[in-house]
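Changelog note: in this version the structure field was regenerated for every chain. One regenerated record is shown below for reference.
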Amino acid sequence: MLLPVLTLMTLLAAADPLAEARQAFSEGQYPEAERLALQAAQPPQEGTALYLVGLARFRAGRPAEALEALDAAGRATDAPERASWSFNRGACLYALERFAEAEQAFLEATPDESLARLAWVNAGFAALDAGSPERASRWAEKARPGASEREAVLVEELLSLVAHERGLAEDAAAEAYRQGLVSFDAGRFDEARAFFLQAAKAHPASGRALLMAGASAYLRGERETAREDITAALALPLEPRDIQTARDYLDRLSFGLRAQGREFRVSAGAGLGFDSNVLQVGVAARDLSTGTASAFAEAGLGLVARWRLSDTVFTQLSYDGTQRAYAVSSAQDYSLQLHRAAVALEWEVARRVRLGASSWGDLFFTDLSDFRGLQGSVSGSAWAALDESEWTSSRLDVAFAHKAGLISEFDYLTGQRLDAMLSQEFRLKTLGLTAWYRYREDRIGTLEQAVSGSTTQEYVIPFAWTGHAVGASARLVLSERLDASLNAEAEWRDYLSDSYLRVQSTDGSVEEWGRRRREDFRFVLGPVVSARLSNHLQLSARYELLVNTSNVDTRLADPAGTCVAPDYVCHRYDYTNGNYQKHLVMLELGATW
């Protein structure tokens, strides 16, 4: 350790009881000066005497005891002048190798112009020994203006030592960084992180070393540690390419829209499947078929663009189009084409809080031979998400849609939909789980459909309903190229008005037969297994089960005597068979670029 010049400020001689102690101090008789000063350490000169005790002890080579005396002097009513007292405390602290405290004490002495340059230099020596050549260089530069010849020599000596330390640190940092890269490339991320941290310690201004330490932690699954390292790296000098890399890592360490990263992606898929009950779609005209099964082919195209508007705001534009075509002629009218364009925006309000909004439009077309518009809709949603930890997130979504039948045939599909959904996500290393609750109001119209072959009877079929649903989904990563998922949902639907058969009697009066308020329970289960065949190709096999139970079904038995005038409240007049099962299987090949 190189001791800086430490100037001990003595007291001017004066005709007082401390004169003998001061005389002994000036003659180098430090033990005697200490003894005499202790005898005189009484008010009103207690602080002055104890200050001299501290100076004597320091000169006698006892810095710890000197510091005690100086601190006691500073508490006395006649405490010594602050700047010189701080300077001498710094000398004691430096001798005790308490360098950070010594640096601070010397800095507190700089307001005194007579001490300023020497205090700056000594603060620099203390900073250097504390391991900060950057601060040492800064204090040396502050001491340079107006320095005397002796002070200028000390400044140059300090700067020479700073340059030497920086050279050693840079050599050590470069070697540690090189070894870290070797370990990183070999997949030994724990070892790589230790080397990168060693490089960052040897060269504190190296943002790249901290960035690589964070990357190593990320690849070891230590998300919180990785985020801390990479955030700290962004506060240090980095090349533009490294800044972008750091932000990309932070994207991966985030949740929501940001976690999906910046990209432009094109996807396409094609598949073959089988639907055991095509005609049961929930909003079709009256059909009492118990099950029209058909094979189908499906093709789709997707475009996604995501980018960062700022460090906290992220956006996404997307388009998806699909076409499903049924093979059986009686099911071809249920073939469906969908187009959706959407925009989404998400803002990281705080470290673990996200707010978002999105808007999208849908167009549905139906049939193959008589291709025509089915329904269009414009929707908007907003959400708030709280990422409680690296493993859990809660989210509240509210969405509203206005829907319209595209031609008069489908006017009954016009109306509004309101959704409110609360979800909780759990994330493990290879398993993701989400549980949710949803409230939905689907306030679309009513279909009035004439009974085949009759001019006096027509079914009144309302499709508006409200419902409560609960569900859960899970995704398990089985290997690098294989994963599986499972979705389950249970929903209770209450229709908002009665369905019935409107009958016009021969006398012109109108009766309503079979008036009933529909209530349904739906259960959906859907497992999927996906295998990644290459960097661009994926093969997926999916199955979906839909079970619907309802109090509206022409096949339900009626108690005796119910199907009589005037109400004819019996299931014979129901408009559909609401109790059914639907099985769907599909094999799909998808590609992404």
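Spot check on this record: The radius of gyration is 41 Å. The first strand starts at residue 263 and ends at 275.
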